Amino acid sequence: MTRVLSVASECAPLVKTGGLADVVGALPAAMAQLGSEMRTLIPGYRSVMKQAKKPREVITFDALFGGPARVVMTKTAGLDLLLLDAPHLFDRAGTPYLDESGADWADNAARFAALSYAAAHIAQNGADGWCPDIVHGHDWQAGLVPEYMHRLADGHPKIPFVFTVHNIAFHGNCAADQLEVLLLDEWRFTAEHFEFWGQISALKAGLTGAQRITTVSQTYAEELMTPEFGMGMDGVLRARRNDLTGIVNGIDLDVWNPATDPEISPYKTPRAKGVNKAALQAEFGLAQSDGPLCVLVSRLTEQKGIDLLIDALPALLGRGGQLALLGSGAAQLEVALHELAAQNDNVAVRIGYDEALAHRMIAGGDAILVPSRFEPCGLTQLYGLRYGTIPLVALTGGLADTVINASPAALAMNAATGVQFSPITAEALSNAFTRLCDLYQAPKTWGILQRNAMKQPVGWETSAKAYGQLYSELTQG
Ligand code: ADP
Ligand code: GLC
Fold this sequence. Notes:
This protein is α/β, with parallel strands linked by helices. It has helices at 19-32, 46-51, 87-90, 108-125, 145-152, 202-209, 218-224, 227-230, 234-239, 274-284, 306-317, 331-343, 355-364, 380-386, 397-402, 408-412, 426-440, 443-455, 461-476, and strands at residues 2-7, 36-43, 56-61, 69-76, 79-85, 134-138, 161-165, 173-174, 195-196, 199-201, 212-215, 244-246, 293-300, 322-329, 347-351, 367-370, 390-394, 419-421. It is 38% helix and 19% strand.
């Protein structure tokens, strides 16, 4: 049995801002089926400490980046958690990354350095007798783990470190004058380790310090090594080409199951989706219409291509299509979407974060839109597949790997599950809307698409095996 310490800044259902939380929350159960024992270390944010069941103190730090801290163990929401309870860093209102005004916390570097330091401490000393065989860190918030593992083990870490990139856009950089404060070794502040254009980069520390790097789809693994998608880290990743693999995310098949979903009128066949569509139209104040009801559930950021959607929308609306959108994020996008809804009876927008509504939308939509400029994996298209809600996606990253475009050949082979567009422009998206509407207006073909979609394996089985294989290569090598 391999014991794995998973380290991340989010974990569903306790704390979530995006897909990272879903993945970190689902991995332990998926890995348990293969005989790995995974425990998850996350920050003890105020809201997380409130949810923790019977927390038991297992490590204390007299001072950790500016104040006393401790690690508590708890079994909460079925997860074996280690929480870094450091009130000076995490006992705050706001989100994991932003203060109440929406700005990054000024001390984010120290907050997640502390998380990484605690992980390295557990790698070196265990926690209450539990000693991991491997540390698996996620994104820049866990990037400094290998640096601290070196430091705490005098240059000879006991166990390997695996680093998963969920999104290369976030580097976790801070100024070089923080070296001492962050307990980083000055002699390692070089381009081989964690120096990035004169700054300290937690992401780069993870990329250079990990024994193996994974990312969340094979296409994104390739894209990461190109200047277009690598966000400045493509050279670092090309140098580590032989240690980089793509392992596509799965979804939790119990949480996302149209046959048992408590938020919806459950269904097993796509024909029975209609009642959910009618309910969703009513909930969003949309009338009945001839075209497909498209849904979108997303953070509203540049990455997600919302501006492209706004420009391309006439192609959908002109065919009697509708849009129901749920999201929150960039203020200018929120304003633009409100305006769009005010001008069009067939567009409805909810600004906010609402897990239950997301379920009702994915059940009630005919199609789910993911027009991202880049998308390491993407999860909502996977929910769409499972719910027979046809994904219309940009041809990039995990969207390229998980959707089979309804080309004439794929339709003829009964393989198609959705619609993809490329290049990622408003024009190509407009054309994709036209194709979507054509397919929708051919009910027999649409029904085949829906059934194909619902048959796709979107759980964790294959990917958990890939992680298991990687863990055993590292622990046995
Ligand atoms: P990312 O991690 O880049 O945001 P993913 O598609 O991997 O993109 O994951 C997003 C996750 O967050 C999904 O589980 C999605 O349902 C959820 N989500 C995003 N925005 C909202 C929202 N406004 N309300 C409810 N769920 C949301
Ligand atoms: C990131 C990516 C998203 C991916 C998620 C989980 O937030 O933007 O594509 O699905 O991580 O890996």
